[in-house]
Structure formats: structure tokens, C-alpha cells
Amino acid sequence: MENIELLMEGFATALQWEYLIYAFLGVLVGTAVGVLPGIGPAMTVALLLPLTYTLDPTAALITFAGIYYGGMYGGSTTSILLNTPGESASIVTALEGNKMAKLGRGAAALATAALGSFVAGTVATIGLTLLAPTIAKLAVNLAPADYVALMVIAFITVGALLGSSVWRGLTSLGIGLFLGLVGTEILSGQQRYTFGLLPLADGIDVVLVAVGLFAVGETFYVASRMRHGPVSLIPITKGWRNWMTREDWRRSWKPWLRGTAIGFPIGTIPAGGADVATFLSYAAEKKLSRHKHEFGRGAIEGVAGPESANNAAAAGVLVPLLTLGLPTTATAAIILSAFQSYGIQPGPQLFQNQSGLVWALIASLYIGNVMLLVLNLPLVGIWVKLLQIPRPYLYAGILTFAALGAFAVNFSTVDIVILLIVGVLGYFLRRFGYPVAPLVIGLILGPMAEAQLRRALQLSQGDLTALVTRPFALACYVSLAVIILLGLWLKRRQSRLERALESALEAETSVSAAVDHMWEPGDRPTDVHTTEIEAIRVEQEQEQEREQRADAAGRATSRRGSRGEKRPPGGPR
Amino acid sequence: MAQTVRPAAAQRIGEVVFAALALGLGLFVLIGAGAIRVPGAGSTVGPRVFPYLVSIILIASAAMVLVDLLRGRLGPQEESEDADPTAKTDWITLAKLAAFVVAHIALIPLLGWPIAAAILFGGVAWSLGAKKWWVALLVGFALSLTVQVVFGGLLGLSLPLGPLLGFLEPLFTLLRG
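The joint structure predicted for all components is written out below.
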């Protein structure tokens, strides 16, 4: 009850004209930048962080929340409508959405993505409202050793489980941890790895690293092998009012809710963030669907479910961020640094010390979601125009704003030098397949982990067993073991499924193309089993037949006025 | 992977060098940790402990990447909407971009932020294949002036105007109110 009162107070703050305008600007800019190709949510947040420096904390964080949610919405538009392989081919959502658009159903894909994001965003924000204060209350009792355990989980899951190679992820994490070490150590006042250089004495600003890795690194990477020629967009037709048919609604609403149910819990635990959630949702929808053969060819459930899961996870990520001060994605790490730049430390005390601010922030999430729905449904035509910006100008703009962001940190050109160096590092990380998210997490979480570790060992007077003897910490390590096993298994399944899906499509053109697709780098020829592709093909064909029969039967029944919801014989197992 | 056009050997050498550098960084952290001064009395866990941990992570994981590479497992290609995975690396364009960023850094104190930013924008757009360089420069100038007005003027970010645009200063003082 008390929380509802506090939430209402939050709304009272967030609904003031001034803050409404900031929320609107946030979602507007967030969507606009998120739509731009090549810019993911993490880069959106990193690029726009310096622009909020001059605002007061509440206004800045409200703007930021809008940018965060807006970037999420914007990204889906890009992957659905942009007619180039690349990022869009690797993420399951985009795979279906892109195929739908090519079939002339782009409008339905966009609508189900936007509505799904809205449903998921709202439900997940309700979840955040209910869950966060409780967790914060429990978290007050956590000891330093417990925080060490939580951070170890975050390091390992983000470092080892995201991205395609465990050791590359951990290397990236190590580089981030090293960058976090640079500067003056707080407890003893000793300089570490500063080479006696003054600009390094204060440490390396997170903004510089995030902007350098995401914006500059990405620009360099694209520049090194740019796709020349005109931008190829898939046109969308029809007015937005009749985007989704009755059938689309019928097939979408359950995936929206299921996606939310899958995405939110996964977002809240420090285990990999949105990627895992979208994959699980996609797998679930495929399993439950009556239209299995459409998967990989433009199934609306394959857009509705994962898009919702994605947004629900994005809201879920805020739970550990606000209550424990624990970022579990690169985007969350940048948001954490935004908090810190105002001298606010997220964590259990946040809900007591900064109650007004936190609740205004949460209220603004509800408001932002409504604004985003309006911005994304009727106005999608404007965003589509953004996709057509000539690429030289787009990347020139990204680089200029990146330099501005770095310069604005201290108004010193030394920071742009650091930005350039980090950008070059980011380019090589990308080029050689190292994920960049662990680096950002390592940089921001490293110093916090060190502080907690030293505190924990000080309390135990150097006794290392104290790190694992507390029940909570022990539970963390046990669940970490489970997460690792589960995560590795899931990842294997995910990459096999993605490749098998693509291979099945390729198989329609040639057998060798299909086999190429299944071929993992480093696999011996005997490791490639055409049976896996064959199984999916056969399954798809059977589904198709079954469905045709079911459709015929369904039509017969629905003509008699009964529900068309009947499951096909032998449908989902 | 049969479909990559790029010579796999060159990619492999690059990867090995990068992983070796990461390993070197790990060793550097390890050696550097020994050089951190530990204040005599006080804490049980000094400022060296965490660096040692970090160096172990770096050395171990970079070594494992190297082992993977020697076994012939290359890193996956990063995917991006605007990148063509089959294209050859265009080092000249990369060098141009880096040069324009360096020029930007050098020009800010000389010409002020708006002009330096316009040159950065125009230069990068030209390097990436914009048809008319002067259009790119004009667009860049329009953009940088807008930023100067909105952030420098209205939001109070102190971006230096520079000597050439210094005559506009009173306008910005007015905007800041």
C-alpha cells in the first residue's frame, strides 16, 4: 500500500509539465537514434549521456529512462525494414520480421512489435514496481561477501555466456577490469597504471569507453568494409489503422504475454539479459505454434513473442540495477554511470535516500511507454525516413557526436584522444569477434567489486572462506554453476537452431549452401550432420501438411459458427 | 568457412597478434601490480590483490584464445547492418577517419568547436563516399552551429566558439540568459 502511495507521488512529479517534456524528448530522441541503423540501445544511451549533463538529476534520469525505452522500440523498426543481411539475420526476431516485410506484411510486423513492446513494457514496469522495493528491503541485509558473489555472477554470465566464445568474452572482461584499475586507488590513495600521466590519475571515464567502443568502434568497423550503393528498404503499405488483421491480433496476444513472462524474470537475474530471453521466447513460440512451417519464413508469433521478451527483459534489468546497484547489461552499466555522475549510488539505500527520485523515474517509465506507443504506431513513417539517411552522412554524424560527447565530459581535448584510442581498440575487438559488453561491465563493476572484496576480507581479517560461508553467497555460487551449465547448453541449442533454420532455407536452393551454413568454424567435415537440417525440413513439411488439413477442417467448423481456436490433430507436443 | 573471400591467413595472423597483445597486457598488469606501493600499516588486503586477480583472468583467457586459434578456430565476424562481411578491409578509409579525428582534436583550440566539428563531419562524410565534399562540409557546419546554439547556448555546455566565430559570443550570452 505504502508503495502505491509513493508511486502516486512519483506520478505527481513526473506529470509536471517540465518533466513530461523531458520524458517526451527522451523517448523521441531515443527512438530516433535507436532507429538509425548500426546503433543499438547501448550506443544510443552512451551517445546521448553527455547531453543530459546540464539537467538536474530528476530531469536527467527521466530523459534517460525515455532514451532507454525509446532505443529499444527503435531498434526493432530497423531490423524489420532494412533489407540487408547482417545483424538482422542473426537475431531471431529480425529473422521473422524481415521475412514478413518481404512478404508485404511489414506493417503487421511493425505493429505487433510496437504493441507487444507496449504490453511487455507496461506489465514489466508493474513487475518492477512491485518487486523492486521488496528486494531493496531484503538487500539491506546483504554483506560485502554477498555482493562479491553477485558480482562474480554478473562477471561470469556477461563475460562467458554472452557472445560466441567463452574465452574471448573473458578476455574482453579482463581488458575492462584493467581499464577500471587505471587511476588513483580509493582506499590507499596509490596510483595504479597511470604511467605518471595526469589525465589518467582520475581514472578513465566510463562515457569515453562506452562511446569509444560503441560509436567510434562501430563507425570504424563499418567504414572498413562499407556496403556501398543505395540503401535498400522494404516498403510498407496501408494506413496504420488497418495494419493488423483480426487474425494477426488473435495470433499475437498470447505471444505478447508469454514473451513478457519469459523476458522479465530473465532480465531480473544477472544471467545474460535480453538475448537469452528473446531466444527462449522464440523457441517457445515455435513449439506452441499451430503454424510451425511459417517459422523462418515470416511467422507473426516469431516477432510478437521475442519483441515482448526483449522489452520485458529491458525493464527487468532495472530491478538489480536499482535495488543492488548491479548492472547486468552494457546499457545498464552506462545508466549506472549516469546515476554516479550525479553522485547517486543505486542500491538498497536508494529507495530510502532518494525515494522521490526513484518513484518519479518509475512513474516516468509508465508514461514513456504510452508516449512510445503513440510515437511508434501512427508516426512510424517518419522513422522509416530516417533509415534512408545516406550512410556517409549518418556515420559522419555518429563520429561528430561521439567527439562532442567525449569533449563535453571535461572540455578537454585529451578526452578525445582517449576516445580515439578506445575506438581503435573497439574496432579490433569487433574485427576479431570479441564481444564489447563484458568490457563495459568490467570497467564499471570492477572497482565496485574490488571495494566489496576488500571490505569482505577486512571483516573476516583475511579469511578467504568468509567469501563462501554466508548462506546467500553460497546460494549464489551454486546457482552460478547451474546458470553456467544451463547457459552453455542453451547457447549451443540457440546457435544450432539459428543455423539449422537458415540452412533449411538455403537447402531450397542448393545442398552445398545448406551444409556451408551448418559448418561451424573449426569443425571437421564429419561434424556437420545433414540430418539436423533434414529433420527441420521434414518437420516443416509435415507441419505444412497437417496445417493444411487443420485449416480445411477449421474452416469447416468456423463456418458453422464455432471457435476457430481448435488445436490441429497432433499439433504441439 | 568456404564463403569468406578474405584470405583466412591474414585474418589469422591478425587474431594471433591481438590475442598475444592481450596476453602481454596480462603480463604487464602482473608485473605492474608488483610495483604498486603498499602503505605499511592498515588493511589486510592491499591495492595489489585485485590487480593480481585481473592479471590472472587476462593471462588465462588470452592464452585459451591463442590455443583455440592454433587449433584453427577463428573468431566469429561481427555483424552489422551497413557492413559487407565479404568486403576486403579498407585501411585507407580507416586512416582517413583517424586522421580527421586527430585534426579535430588539433583544431578545437585553434578554430573553436563549431568549425572543428564541421571539418570533422565533412571530412568523415567525404572519406566514406559522400558525392560532393562541399555539401558535406555545409551540412556539418549547419549541424555544429545547431549544436552550439542548443547545447552551448540554451543548455549551457561551454563549447569554445573560437576566434573566427567569436563575434557571435554576445548572442550566446544572451541565450544563456
